[in-house]
């Protein structure tokens, strides 16, 4: 799926490949979030799950995501959002059943258990340092067409 598509176009492209679609960190104020562009409620009917717990998220975004998922009758997942080895498995979704097919995964998500955890601040510090290194190398991030651009001073 090419970068820079709108959320609706990206969802359609994933569906065309037989993929499931979820909304990662929907209320994260420090990273890209569809709540910033006001598109979250518009695409909620088009997705299969909502990220309800992100181990790296700071603030009340996880609570807001769980409430949003409940409002839209979507299952939630917990993720480590690991950017380093020490973060793998910090948070996860425990599932019963056979999640090896899209149908099986959707069925398992409906009764899954969130196992929340928090990434350390040290681990979180590694990401902005890595981003600076990548920017110095000339590797920028493609801004999705459906979101308003963030000014450089607001980027983590």
The parts where pLDDT drops under 50 for at least 5 residues are none
Terminal CA distance = 25 Å
Radius of gyration: 16 Å
Q: Could you state the order of secondary-structure elements as H and E? A: HEHEHEEHEH
Mean of residue pLDDT values: 82
Largest sheet: 3 strands, parallel
Give the total of beta strands.
5
Helix/strand class: alpha/beta
Helix percent reads 25-40%
Shape call: globular
Number of helices: 5
Major sheet: order of its strands?
1-2-3
Strand content: 5-15%
Essential attributes:
156 residues, alpha/beta, three-stranded parallel beta sheet, two-stranded antiparallel sheet, 5 strands, globular
What does this structure look like?
- This protein is an alpha/beta fold.
- 32% of the residues lie in helices and 12% in strands.
- It contains five helices and five strands.
- It has a three-stranded parallel β-sheet with strand order 1-2-3.
- It starts with 6 loop residues before the first helix and ends in a 20-residue tail after the last helix.
- The model has no long low-confidence stretch (mean pLDDT 82).
């Amino acid at each position: 799926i090419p970068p820079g598509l709108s959320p609706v176009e990206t969802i359609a492209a994933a569906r065309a490949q037989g993929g499931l679609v979820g909304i990662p960190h929907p209320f994260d104020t420090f990273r890209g979030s569809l709540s910033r562009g006001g598109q979250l409620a518009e695409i909620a009917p088009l997705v299969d799950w909502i990220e309800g717990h992100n181990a790296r998220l700071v603030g009340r975004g996880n609570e807001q995501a769980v409430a949003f998922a409940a409002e839209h009758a979507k299952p939630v997942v917990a993720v480590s959002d690991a950017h380093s080895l020490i973060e793998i498995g910090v948070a996860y979704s425990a599932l019963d059943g056979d999640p090896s097919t899209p149908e099986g995964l959707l069925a398992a998500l409906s009764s899954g258990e969130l196992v929340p955890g928090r990434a350390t601040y040290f681990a979180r510090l590694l990401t902005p340092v890595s981003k600076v290194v990548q920017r110095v190398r000339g590797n920028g991030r493609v801004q999705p067409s459906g979101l308003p651009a963030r000014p450089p001073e607001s980027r983590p």
